[in-house]
Amino acid sequence: MGQSTRFGPTAGLLVEPLGDAWVAFSPLSGETMFLNDPSAAIVEVLSEAPADMHAVCAALAHDAEASLQQVSDVIGQSWAQLVEGGLIVALP
Q1: Structural domain boundaries, residue 39
Q2: Which of 12, 35, 80, 89 is most buried, by the most CB atoms less than 10 A from its CB?
Q3: Does a structural domain hold residue 23?
Q4: d(Cα 10, Cα 27) in Å, to the nearest integer?
Q5: What is the pTM of this model?
């Protein structure tokens, strides 16, 4: 899976705010997980349109008025957890 692989949220993914965090249910894994703000932001961007990690980082950097490198450092850590948890999936 290269960095240009497009991802989208798992079909039927549910994400809801819960206090200072987010709760997500993945029908793919059958698990409910807590998400931090960066992870929830990734899911939100991908819910609008499938994208690769670079495009998601660019969109979030623009929204946060931060550098692409700053956002990439944070997002890179969350991205793998979202894939492993079945919350986002690579698209054909």
Answers
A1: 7-86
A2: 35
A3: yes
A4: 8
A5: 0.89
